[in-house]
Write a structure and sequence with these properties.
The chain is mostly helical. The protein is built from 4 helices and 2 strands, in the order H-H-E-H-H-E. A two-stranded antiparallel sheet has the order 1-2. The longest helix has 16 residues, at 68-83. The protein is globular.
Length: 92
Amino acid sequence: PGNGWAPDVGGLRIWYLLRSRLGCSLMPVRTTADWVAFESPHGGRVLSATERQALHRMREELSRAMGSDFDAARALIDSLLEHGVKLEQERY
């Protein structure tokens, strides 16, 4: 969607809904695990306990899905959890 996914729980849910409805791969353009790792020291908002739980649930839900976009989504979730922040796409 657009120029990437919003790197937070809501953005991932939107991506998953679109991906499910369209039935085709939707790859991120800019919102990647590497981008989160690079940008997280420069700001962002700390993930709440609720957001962390939701990311863990989504990670589990996507654990068996096949496809490079699912791989990218899992990596993005892992990076968000590792760095403990959510970032706004407007940071580009």
